[in-house]
Amino acid sequence: MHTGEEKIRWAEQYMPVLREIRERFIREQPLKGIVIGMALHVEAKTAVLTRTLAAGGAEVHITGCNPLSTQDDVAEALNDGNIHCYAKRACSHEEYYAGIDKVLDARPSITIDDGMDLIHHLHTGRRDILPGVLGGCEETTTGIHRLKSMAGEGKLEFPVVAVNDTPMKHFFDNVHGTGESALTAIMATTNNLIAGKHIVVAGYGYCGRGLATKARALGARVIVTEIDPRRALQAHFDGFEVMTIREAAPIGELFVTTTGNVGILKEPEFALMRDGAILCNAGHFNVEIDVEWLDTNADEIGRRDGIDSYTFGDRKIHVLAEGRLVNLAVPKGMGHPIEVMDLSFAVQALSTEYMVQHGKDLAPGVHDVPTEMDEEIARIKLASLGCTIDTLTPEQEEYMASWNVGT
Asked: How far apart are CA 255 and CA 245, in angstroms?
């Protein structure tokens, strides 16, 4: 069997929520006649989502959303029937946007993004496609930030569901997915020990919190840096050291950025780091570590297996995955665990169906995933685990709805 197909089948057996959704999609065909354009990390879990959408009647065109996150064998296996895949690992900037253009050439009526590059190109370079678009879905924090900025300026011309902003995404994908997959990729790439290391986590949102918690569980001494006083205080009460990135620079042995913002680690921090410091990024775009400064000003002394090594003075600094998303962009990166992506991609699948049904009635802008959809996914997952939960009694429902009951 083709290795890509083997990876997809392995993922499918641990994705019971998407399997149940696919069975309903096969019966009901809610996406019949719909063309879906996708820019996502093309690997096995994404393939299961793509096939679920196709099983619902859609014609799917997909490309990558990061030059280093595509698994070529999975991309090859996806090219079948009404699925068309244009993704390629280690593609150039020109090849990356050529893939996006091929997706848009299919004139999709629904877009699914991870990072918003597809929607951005649609609005800036392929405006001829806009009239036929019902709406879209966005997977990640960085994409939501871009979309909200775009909508705030009145530039977003169709509705987009913020898949990233649901509890099912934050609680599991961001915390457990990023936390485990980033550390797994770091360990597999460097063969370094986590226990006892000073690890600096930049940003204490859901992703940073997951990373800090998982690293501590492995025995790391975790330092958190933040700009939000509330999150910084939360990190302090969670038992982590809190300081500025400049203060942490000479202490850290491993640095992981999770902010989604630009210029977190730059020349002033590099100048303070200890010999052998390892730097990587768990945010979407490769803007958090100033790799360009290192390429220009430091001497590159090695490039192998997802590690770029630099020296200036008597110190070495090592950057993983060119500063890109470490859990997918290193050669041994597998992305988030399968069970986590089952939940996130279930939100994607149901949000796509929702946009097909309601896109014409929604105003341009960023819209929340309906709570009942998010809860449905949790119920399906609980059932697959054999877990049962309580329900409110009529008396409890009446009490919660009442304002007359007091002391």
From this structure: 10
304 annotated ligand binder: no
Quick one: which of 68, 74, 75, 73 has its CA closest to 90?
68
Which parts of 152-215 are beta strand (E)?
159-162, 198-202
145 is in an annotated binding site: no
Kindly report whether the global pTM for this prediction surpasses the value 0.70. yes
Residue 122 to residues 26, 210, 249, 280, Cα–Cα distance (Å) = 30, 33, 40, 30
pLDDT digits 0-9 by tens, 249-292: 999 999 999 999 999 999 999 999 999 999 999 998 899 999 99
CATH numeric code, 3-169+336-385 = 3.40.50.1480
306 belongs to an annotated ligand binding site: no
Examine the pLDDT at 211 and tell me if it is beyond 90.
yes
Phi-psi region of 365 (alpha: psi -120 to 50; beta: other; left: phi over 0): left
User: Which CATH number describes the domain made up of 175-329?
Assistant: 3.40.50.720
Is there a shared CATH topology between the 3-169+336-385 domain and the 175-329 domain? Answer: yes
> Is 96 annotated as belonging to a binding site?
no
